[in-house]
Amino acid sequence: SYDRGSTFNVFVGKGQLIAGMDKALVGMCVNERRFVKIPPRLAYGTEGVSGVIPPNAVLHFDVLLIDLWNSEDQVQVQTYFRPEQCPRTVQVSDFVRYHYNGTFLDGTLFDSSHNRMRTYDTYVGIGWLIPGMDQGLLGMCVGEKRIITIPPFLAYGEEGDGKEIPGQASLVFDVALLDLHNPKDGIAIENQHVPESCERRSQAGDFVRYHYNGTLLDGTLFDSSYSRNRTYDTYVGKGYVIAGMDEGLLGVCTGEKRRIIIPPHLGYGEEGRGKIPGSAVLVFDIHVVDFHNPSDSVSITVNYKPSNCTVLSKKGDYLKYHYNASLLDGTLLDSTHSLGKTYNIVLGFGQVVVGMDMGLQDMCVGERRTVVIPPHLGYGEDGVEGEVPGSAVLVFDIELLELVSGLPEGYMFVWNGEVSPNLFEEIDQNHDGEVLLEEFSEYIQAQVDSGKGKLAPGFDFEKIVKNMFTNQDRDGNGKVTAEEFKLKDQEAKEEEHDEL
Fold first, then answer.
1. CA–CA distance from 323 to each of 182, 277, 339, 488 (Å)?
2. pTM for the predicted model, two decimal places
3. Could you give the residue numbers annotated as active site?
4. Are residues 87 and 151 in the same domain?
């Protein structure tokens, strides 16, 4: 048979062999080798075989059994590893990805997906595989390893495959299942942690910041936001991410942790991407850091309000307050308490982010409130490098300690009493008909010190005075004359007259 390059294939005990060989083969194991001596009466007798075997010849056979099977055999399955958790097993019409080594019964390797470094991907139970493999894969868990032994009539039969597999060969597949899904599958969500307090859940159109670990079903890590030390930030429900993630991020709370299992037709499909193979089920373990909607405004929650709360903060007021600033997940960003001093601003003049200007409105001294600021009213998409992440929702716990009422809008200085009719002459101390910046500054300082006048609180004195002087110095020559000098209410009346 070696000379012919093919095994001898025959049924035993059915008269297809000489009597001696029929007896000699009984009880042999695959890979067993026997030396068989057969007398003429159990071989070709007194006639022999013309030109080959003489009459009355004793025959000697050196036999090596390669394969054996019975027509009543079925597929044999031997599981040698099964995961502790097995939420789902292979069913008919599922799509699977698996690795295998394919051998004959004698251990000869004829094929291996490992050598190709690529899984075998196919539907099960619909005729895409040989019948024995269609049967042998049913009931497997992801991560399970089993030996599937298939008789030839459930494999490639009498003809073989015309390549590596000869006719009538039993096949042995050592299979490791990596992945399975059904084309009808949707995403699966497993809640791992849901905060007790969940005032709002994400909706389509929200902008979400979250951390994730992305793995295949067998646990192979393909990506992680943690390794980049940066959240993944995206709109949800608008097609900015794969369809399965778009759906899986809806209905989450800030601080929630959930597992999202995404079938390939809602992930990266048959082609895959990068480290993600084609037709792969994806598993994302996500942690939602925060989310907001571009239409969101500032949210204010009053935690304490004094019984006497009549004077409320307004634009132009000078405020002193303490705050703790954090992210929605509780991460502390900054605190005036740790610095040991208050934060001081003029309200409504852009000295803080827009959201804080809004959050400090209508507040009385002693009041404590929590102000939640969406990023478009905070530090935007860029954030503050090393301090505030991009697109972060900010939470400020504020206590107002002091309020100095500001001036009417548009004024940087007001009189507390009647304005002198000889105001220009009083400012022009040397009576030369011209007022210099130094004279103007000394006069304004004297009015503030005596209580006759008031400057807008919280601003630099020199800058205010210089700005007032520049407004009066209409020709820009550094001097103010009596003709140039006008009070603000006089200017307003002149403008009204001009309009008339």
1. 53, 49, 11, 38
2. 0.78
3. 212, 222-223, 242, 268, 284
4. yes
